[in-house]
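seq:
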Amino acid sequence: MNKGFILAAVAGITWGTIPLAVKQVYSTGSASALEISFFRFVIAFVVLLVATKMKNEPVILKNKWSLLMGFWGIFWMSSISFYGMQYTSAVNATILFNSNPLFVAGLVVFLKWEKITFLTVAGILLGICGVVLVSGVTVDIQLQGDLLVLLGAFGWAVYTVLGYRLRKVSSLSVTTSSLFWGLLWFPFFIWREPIAITTPAWMWIAYIGVVPTAAAFLFYVKAVDVIGSTKASVFQYLAPAVAVILSVGFGLESVTMYQIAGVVLIIMGIELTRRADTL
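struct:
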């Protein structure tokens, strides 16, 4: 299998562990959504900063693409999405955020940066149907929260597309630099009261920062370099499927036939997108 598909799949799978880890942080009652988001990116930046220094690669890319990736994919995506989640259900948020491959496809077509085939679009839609089934078939429209989550999803789509513009630059430098530029926005919004995060919460935040953020973002940017933004984005459909599997495995919820069918549709959608250029 193409290296890019493997990297995108690993990123999608590790993102699926985030909900379980975040629930563990929330169970301590010591960290807000914005604090979790901010510190996960701080930890990820430090890890990748060390890696860039060890490989003697540029840390801060002084170009508009890197700066825009930081704003849209780090600050905007996380802060707007988390804010929207306060006003909508977890089901709505999962479905709406994971619809962002449609934004990616629309952006690359509008900008004429990539070619989109019918099978690619079919794979995206099939994957979204799978996400809907995995998340649950009952969806209540909650306009304010839903729109905010969609805006957050759009930010991640912009990040994905802009990453393709920097495909000739080291993915390590691109990821580290975008984290730096994105982190600059957080201090204006995060500190309203003293931080009192407990040790168990810090351990989970550290995991989120290292594995599904530092490593997964690096793999994802490299995957975009290799297979393009549209195909790479489809692999994030693995995240809700993995989240459900882990929740069942840890006894947090039971699995339904709808969710099993959803996982099958997600796999079919990814495979259809992967083979779009060969069929």
